[in-house]
Amino acid sequence: MSILTRVEGAHAATKPGRGAPGRLSVVAAVAFMVLAACYMLLPVYWLLVSSTKSQGDLVSTPGLLPAHWHLGDNLAALFTQQDGVFARWLLNSLLYAGAGAAVATALAAAAGYALAKYEFRGREAVFSVVLGGVLVPASALALPLFLLFAQVNATNTFWSVFLPSIVSPFGVYLSRIFATASVPDEVLEAARMDGAGELRIFRTIALRMMSPALVTVFLFQFVVIWNNFLLPLVMLQDDDLYPVTLGLFTWQSQTSRLPQLQTLTIVGALISVVPIVLTFLLLQRYWRAGLAAGAVKS
């Protein structure tokens, strides 16, 4: 009995010592996350502040301190520069990213569902090739794609940027994982017994069960296409076909000759972030559900 008493006393004595290091680690973790958040948000803050400055204030005032408010004038100048070409670039980016991400998501969903739910010879070999495609950087494919499109005289066209964007090996990989986790084989067998065809099963059952995951695929592909720079740089010569990333780059490269383009480039960069932020905010709930799918196994 005395031994048990001593053990319980020793255990109680160790509790205060455990609590203090635990609280200290929590404070340290929170402080680190706050510092990391400040580090990542500092460029965004600089972009917001700089977008409100005139060209003179931009070069004569500290970068992180606000000056006189000129955001309205800057926006007006941005959308009137070169007969409003920035609006054209923004529309091009929306077409490339929006339509490209939608088509890429549909193709990835079909391919991932087939790899997850159908048994056929060479299935694992095909999936290995898809995984290999995930590992290949997009920059390594820009020149081969240019040579392929040049063979059919399709460079400097909308399709030379759009068609490569609808292929997403990472989307196929995610779709297979999600289809395996969220589409039960028993449901598919029951639908087949009721006389449903394979296309109808995929369209009415599988897509609905995979919808949170497909939103995740769409978001990833939308951001990748929106931020794509090297492929349009290689493919396009007509500035009416430029996405906003390439258009702003051309302005930035001319700032030594036309200094006013520096302010327009900064304001344009701020505007170009807005569609991505809005897309994430609108689809955030589905995106979180998609990331968590398969994390809990019943």
Short précis:
This protein is 79% helix and 0% strand.
Beta-strand portion reads under 5%
User: Count of helical segments?
Assistant: 13
Count of strand segments: 0
| Proportion of residues in helical segments | over 70%
Element string (H = helix, E = strand): HHHHHHHHHHHHH
Which residues sit in consecutive blocks of at least 5 with pLDDT less than 50?
A: 10-17, 293-298
Detailed description of the structure:
This protein has 298 residues and is mainly alpha-helical. Helix content is 79%, strand content 0%. The chain contains 13 helices and no strands. It has helices spanning 2-51, 55-60, 71-80, 85-117, 123-135, 138-151, 158-165, 169-182, 185-193, 198-226, 230-235, 244-252, 260-292. The longest helix has 50 residues, at 2-51. The protein is globular, with a radius of gyration of 26 Å. It starts with a helix and ends in a 6-residue tail after the last helix. The model is unreliable at 10-17 and 293-298 (pLDDT under 50).
Topology at a glance:
Blueprint: H1 2-51, H2 55-60, H3 71-80, H4 85-117, H5 123-135, H6 138-151, H7 158-165, H8 169-182, H9 185-193, H10 198-226, H11 230-235, H12 244-252, H13 260-292
Helix pairs in contact: 1-13, 3-13, 4-7, 4-8, 4-10, 4-12, 5-8, 8-10, 9-10, 10-13, 12-13
